[in-house]
Design brief:
Strand content: 25-35%
Distance between the termini: 41 Å
Number of helices: 5
Helix content: 10-25%
Structural class: alpha/beta
Oligomer: single chain
Radius of gyration: 25 Å
Largest sheet: 19 strands, mixed
Shape: globular
C-alpha cells in the first residue's frame, strides 16, 4: 500500500484489495501456502524456486528490487532494497539515490554505528523498515524523508520519537511495537494522512509478547482529531475520553489505563464506531472495567480483549453474534459467568482466559461453544480441575493450559473431543506431569513444557485408532 501498487476498486478499502491480490496469486500457484492458522487463513507463504529466480531476473533488469547479503555491492538506480545483515557492520553505498524502499533483516548482532546516519539522497524513500535494528535514536536526517509512507521501528531501542516526525505529512503507517518509547510528541497530530498507529512497550521485554505485558504509549488527547486514523492501538490517551466520540472511522481500537470514571465517555464513543471489528480495553492496575453504559455494540465486532475486573458478564455480550475471538484477563470470573459466556457467543472460535480471568477451583464447560477451535487457559492459580461435558466445543483443535500450578489432571471429558490434535501444558502440578511422563523419568526439567499430539494408527485397517504421544519442549 505504501508503494502505491494498489488500484482503487470502487469503495473497497486498500487492505481488502491487497488481500484479494494475495489470494489470487495463491490460487494461481504463483505463491505457495506453507502454513495456515487454525482458522484456515494463510500464515506463511513462499514463492516457487523457479518463479522466484524468474522474478529476481526481471527485477534486476528493471532495477525494481535488489536483495543483498552484503557480499555484493548494490547497483545504482535501485528503487527497492532488501538487506540481510549478517556481519558486524552494515554499509549502504552511493547507488541508492532513487531508493523507494529500504528493508533491513538483522540476522546477527551488528554494530550500532551502522545506523547512526542514513546516507544522503533518501528523499524519495517511501518505506523504511528498521525492525530489530540496534538503534537508540533516529538519525538527524529523519525529518527530511517527506515522501515516507511506512515506518517500522519494532523491537528497536529507540526511546524518543523526535518532534520532526510532524514533518512527515505523507506518513500512513507508524509501527512502534516493543520499543523504549513511552510517550509520543504532540507533533504526531500533524500527520493527517496517518491511517495506522500501533505503539506499545513491554513491561518485561525478555518475555515473549503477550497482552498481559503490553503497556500503552501515551498519546495527546488531540489525537482524536486525526480523521484518517483507522487503527489506534495500544495507546494511553492523556486526559479524558470525551473527544474519542469523533473517531467514528476506526476499525481497530486499543486503549490502556482505563478507570471506572471513563465508562460514560468510553461507551458513548464505542457505540458510534460502526466500522469497529477489533477492540482491546485494558484497565489501570487493580481497576475495574465498567461497560454497563454501552447500549449497543459495533455490528461487525469480531475480536474483543478485556483486561480488568468484571463484576459480571456485560449485558451486551448476548448481542456479539459476529464475535469469533475473545480474550479475558484479570476479570476474576466465576463459574456461573463462564456458563453465561457459553450461552452468549454462538460463533466464538478462539477463547483465551489468562491471569486470573477465572477465579475458582473448578472450571466447568457444560454447554455451548459449538464453533470453538482454540482454548487457552493461563495463570489461573486456584484452578484444580477442568470439566467438559459431552457435546461441548465439539470442534476444539487446540488446548493450552499454562501456569496453572494446581491443575491435577487432564480435563474430564477430553476424550470426547475427537478433533483435538494438540495439548500444551506448562507449570502444572507434579501429579499431572507424572501421569503423562511417568514417575521414573529423572531427565525431566524442573518445570517441563509438555506437548501432546494425536497420531493416527493405521495398522488396523478396519478400525483406525488414534493415540497421544508426548514430547518435552523445554
Amino acid at each position: 500500500m505504501a508503494e502505491g501498487f494498489l488500484e482503487q476498486v470502487n469503495d473497497a478499502p486498500p487492505e481488502a484489495v491487497a488481500e484479494s491480490y494475495l489470494m489470487e496469486l495463491i490460487s494461481r500457484s504463483l505463491l505457495l501456502v506453507t502454513m495456515r492458522n487454525h482458522f484456515g487463513r494463510p500464515k506463511a507463504i513462499k514463492m516457487h524456486d523457479l518463479i522466484r529466480e524468474f522474478a529476481l531476473s526481471i527485477s534486476k533488469e528493471e532495477k525494481l528490487v535488489a536483495v543483498s547479503d552484503e557480499k555484493k555491492g548494490e547497483e545504482s538506480g535501485i528503487r527497492r532494497y532488501s538487506i540481510e545483515v549478517k556481519d558486524k557492520e552494515m554499509k549502504l553505498g552511493n547507488g541508492t539515490a532513487q531508493l523507494r524502499s529500504l528493508i533491513i533483516f538483522v540476522v546477527d548482532e551488528i554494530s550500532k554505528s551502522s545506523f547512526n546516519k542514513l546516507p544522503s539522497g533518501f528523499k524519495l524513500l517511501r518505506v523504511l523498515d528498521l525492525e530489530k535494528a540496534p538503534i537508540n535514536e533516529l538519525p538527524s536526517e529523519f525529518g527530511h524523508l517527506f515522501n515516507l509512507r511506512y515506518l517500522n521501528l519494532t523491537r528497536t531501542q529507540v526511546k524518543v520519537l523526535p518532534k520532526s516526525i510532524g514533518k512527515l505529512f505523507n506518513l500512513q503507517t507508524l509501527v512502534l511495537k516493543n520499543t523504549k518509547i513511552r510517550k509520543l510528541p504532540h507533533e504526531i497530530v500533524k500527520l493527517q494522512n496517518l491511517h495506522y498507529l500501533i505503539a506499545y512497550y513491554l513491561k518485561n521485554p525478555d518475555i515473549d509478547t503477550n497482552l498481559e505485558l503490553v503497556r500503552g504509549v501515551h498519546v495527546p488527547p488531540s489525537i482524536c482529531m486525526m480523521k484518517s486514523l483507522q487503527v489506534l492501538a495500544h495507546v494511553r490517551v492523556l486526559g479524558t475520553f470525551s473527544k474519542l466520540k469523533e473517531m467514528t472511522q476506526l476499525t481497530r481500537l486499543g486503549l490502556y489505563g482505563l478507570t471506572e470514571a471513563d465508562e460514560k465517555d468510553l461507551c458513548f464513543s464505542i457505540e458510534r464506531m460502526e466500522r469497529l471489528y477489533h477492540l482491546t480495553l485494558t484497565a489501570s492496575h487493580g481497576a475495574r472495567i465498567k461497560m454497563d453504559a454501552l447500549l449497543s455494540v459495533p455490528p461487525y465486532l469480531e475480536r474483543l480483549h478485556l483486561s480488568g475486573k468484571l463484576e459480571k458478564v456485560p449485558h451486551w455480550f448476548n448481542t456479539l453474534l459476529n464475535l469469533n475471538r475473545l480474550s479475558l484477563q484479570d476479570t476474576e470470573l466465576r463459574e456461573d459467568h463462564v456458563l453465561s459466556l457459553s450461552q452468549s457467543l454462538p460463533n466464538l472460535s478462539y477463547l483465551n482466559l489468562s491471569a486470573n480471568a477465572f477465579e475458582g477451583e473448578r472450571l466447568c464447560f457444560v454447554e455451548g461453544f459449538q464453533k470453538l477451535k482454540i482454548l487457552k487457559i493461563r495463570r489461573c492459580p486456584q484452578l484444580h480441575e477442568i470439566m467438559m461435558e459431552k457435546g461441548v466445543m465439539p470442534g476444539l483443535q487446540v488446548l493450552h493450559v499454562l501456569r496453572c500450578k494446581e491443575l491435577r489432571r487432564l480435563p474430564y471429558g477430553w476424550e470426547h473431543l475427537t478433533h483435538l490434535v494438540e495439548v500444551r501444558l506448562y507449570d502444572v502440578s507434579d501429579e499431572l506431569v507424572q501421569s503423562i511422563c511417568g514417575n521414573g523419568n529423572g531427565d525431566l526439567p524442573t518445570t517441563p513444557y509438555i506437548l501432546l499430539t494425536r497420531t493416527d494408527d493405521d495398522d488396523d485397517v478396519e478400525e483406525a485408532k488414534s493415540k497421544w504421544v508426548h514430547k518435552i519442549l523445554s
